[in-house]
Amino acid sequence: MDNIQKFFSDIQKIKKHYRSENPVYDGKKVCVQIQNLFSNSNRNLKSLADAFSDYWMNKYILNSNQPENEPTEEHIKILGAMQALIENDIFSTEALSKDDWKELCKITNCEAEEIPIETLNSMMMIFLDKQAM
What we know:
Elements: H1 3-21, H2 27-41, H3 46-61, H4 73-86, H5 98-110, H6 117-129
Helix pairs in contact: 1-2, 1-4, 2-3, 3-4, 3-5, 5-6
């Protein structure tokens, strides 16, 4: 199991655990727990991870027509693609839209001072390849 698969598995565990402990499912609360998972999975890039997960929450979860069903599989894949971007796994980023790429590039530029140079260079190469710059 690679890191992205483990990330997806951990998200499913969060959803399952929440359902077993609560009589009513609250998608927003589950998504906050998933945001925490994302941040904890990227402690070495905490400010970038927080900014990416905030973008995910604001764009996909808080604007959802069915918040009780969040996170949907599509939205989980988008966050997983952000995880893949951080891990320099370009082959697992297909869930990101052109707008996502542009916004994630802007976020990364804003957080650049906090990102190790090797990681920043790798991400910028991916953004360039995806024509997000």
